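User: My collaborator sent over this chain with a note saying "see what the structure looks like." That's all I know about it. Can you take a look?
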Amino acid sequence: MTITILSSRELGRNVGRAKRAAHSGPVFITNRGRPTHVLLSVEDYRRFAGARRGLAGSLSMGGLSDIDFEPPKLHIETSHADLS
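Assistant: Without extra context I'll predict from the sequence alone. Here is the result:
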């Protein structure tokens, strides 16, 4: 299973790439470095939905525990406001 991680911006620029990647495994979509959505192929979705498991059971399925997700660190620079 291949796991793909795309930012929301990357998804908007290249939906076709995300759809192709979803055939090989889940595509995690991030917003500000945090996962917010997962794109699945219809086959994977039906497999998960047809299993009649709860969310915890679906997330603990074999093969998903080896996901190594380390979002990029966000660096924000600040400056002092001149209130004079």
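A starting point for your reply to your collaborator: The helical segments are 8-13, 15-22, 42-50, 55-59.
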